[in-house]
Write a structure and sequence with these properties.
Elements (H helix, E strand, L loop, with lengths): L1 H9 L18 H19 L4 E2 L2 E2 L1 E4 L4 E4 L2 E3 L5 H21 L2 H5 L2 H17 L2 H9 L4 H26 L5 H10 L4 H21 L1 H7 L2 H4 L10 E4 L1 H4 L23 H4 L20 H12 L7 E4 L7 H23 L3 E7 L6 E2 L5 E11 L5 E7 L6 E2 L4 E4 L4 E10 L7 E9 L4 E9 L2
Helix pairs in contact: 3-15, 5-7, 5-9, 7-9
């Protein structure tokens, strides 16, 4: 209980950081994992729009057609409940990861982190290492500095432009997008969205960077409610490291001093500029770069590694794990049931309200109905239209309605009553019958 109170006590400890953060490029196991995972996720993001399935783009948010194509499945506005299930499942998975492993999502898989990592990598390749960037920042403005920084920002804008175009290919067929782009036929509307997302990426990953994690992301604020003494977090082992003081390599460890050599590398490599030795802070994104830096120093001094490590104060009780996994399992089952039972055809009928009825040449009364039918399957279908349990009412037009795969049609249907029909308002049930489907819709027949 005391350890938990200690964790909660330091969670709101603020970081002592400068307005301008220049991080030191770090190598190590954690950094390699971040880069490999970021590369895989980036390739998935870039390559997904180019995947084709049955001659169509496999993943496409077609706003104009109001369709979300996911391989053989096409979702429509009537199927938006899918997002509720997916968001709930994703939220509780994130809660589980946060309760068990802290901000692991932030450090390894968040798009903000991945693009910031790419921008940082580009900055190191162009501007040089940590010391060079420090000298350039503190030195006089020179022609070399202007050229180098201009090249960096041009590179950032190029990455942001490619990101924006790739993002747009999720909403526009990729072939048409690139053909229009390179032929100069892309409309102003598309260019407007491309420029908007390009600037958003450039500003967010190039300028905002760690400020997004520190000030704007709500996740960093509410994560404190999920962290307990059985949560694995990146932390400094103060009992082993303190009191800390500088020393020389190969020098015998001074008496009464801890293992921390006060090199400040853990601060220099931190993307959000915090000092992990001050205790757990909400700005920490659990990227593990301080672990790599500290292990590197411990290896030089022949000290045991793990002065900074990712660990929990005690073993997990598994109660919260079971609860989160249970909730996720329940919603996955509910989602599967809903998805399996969702209607494959949407049928709506609207009675013509401008003309409630009209009289035909032979004196019989006609009503006009507008049918809107949507086929959500890739197969064509033919519906036979009939009136259920009412032999007096007769369908004059459109007894058969044919739809291709994923097609939507609006069909006008005339229904006629006999001359001796004496009911002023009669409920009518339309029956649409296909090979494997039976759909009924209710309406009303109006007589004079």
């Amino acid at each position: 209980m005391q350890a938990n109170q200690k964790t909660q006590a330091v969670i709101f400890q603020t970081a002592d950081i400068d307005d301008k953060i220049i991080i030191k490029e770090q190598k190590g196991a954690w950094q390699r994992t971040r880069r490999w995972l970021a590369t895989v996720l980036m390739l998935v993001f870039i390559g997904t729009p180019f995947i084709y399935f049955q001659g169509e783009q496999a993943v496409l948010f077609d706003i104009g057609a109001q369709q979300l194509r996911l391989f053989s499945t096409v979702l429509y506005p009537q199927d938006l409940l899918v997002f509720f299930y997916l968001f709930v499942i994703a939220a509780f998975l994130l809660f589980y990861v946060s309760a068990r492993y802290g901000r692991l999502w932030c450090g390894f898989m968040c798009p903000q982190t991945i693009w910031s990592l790419l921008f940082f990598w580009t900055q190191f390749r162009i501007e040089g290492n940590y010391q060079t960037q420090k000298k350039r920042l503190n030195g006089m403005l020179s022609a070399e500095t202007i050229v180098v920084k201009s090249l960096k920002h041009v590179s950032w804008l190029g990455i942001a432009l490619l990101t924006s175009i790739t993002f747009m290919s999720y909403f526009t067929p990729v072939k048409a997008l690139y053909v229009d782009l390179f032929s100069g036929k892309l409309t102003g509307l598309y260019w407007g969205w491309i420029l908007f997302f390009m600037l958003a990426t450039y500003i967010n990953a190039g300028w905002v960077k760690e400020k997004m994690c520190e000030h704007m992301c709500p996740y960093s604020r509410f994560q404190s409610a999920m962290i307990s003494e059985d949560t694995k977090v990146v932390s400094y082992i103060a009992q082993r490291g303190e009191p800390r003081a500088p020393r020389k390599i190969n020098q015998e460890q001074p008496a009464l001093l801890g293992d921390c050599v006060d090199c400040n590398l853990c601060v220099q490599v931190c993307p959000v500029g915090i000092d992990i030795r001050k205790g757990f802070q909400y700005q920490c994104i659990s990227c593990g770069l301080c672990i790599d830096a500290c292990n590197q120093v411990m290896k030089r001094f022949n000290y045991p590694q793990g002065l900074i490590k990712n660990h929990a104060e005690k073993e997990s009780s598994h109660v919260r794990t079971i609860a989160y996994v249970g909730v996720v399992a329940i919603f996955i089952v509910l989602f599967a049931i809903w998805f399996a039972s969702r209607p494959l055809f949407e049928v709506s009928v609207i009675k013509d309200r401008n003309v409630l009825f009209r009289e035909a040449i032979d004196g019989r009364i006609e009503n006009i109905y507008q049918f809107k039918i949507l086929n959500k399957t890739p197969k064509s279908v033919a519906f036979n239209l009939a009136i259920q349990n009412n032999e007096q009412l007769e369908i004059i037009s459109a007894p058969v309605i044919e739809l291709a795969g994923f097609e939507s049609q609006i069909v006008m249907v005339n229904v006629r009553a006999p001359i001796d029909f004496d009911s002023q308002f009669t409920p009518v049930t339309f029956e649409l019958t296909a090979k494997d489907s039976l759909i009924t819709v209710d309406s009303m027949f109006h007589h004079r």
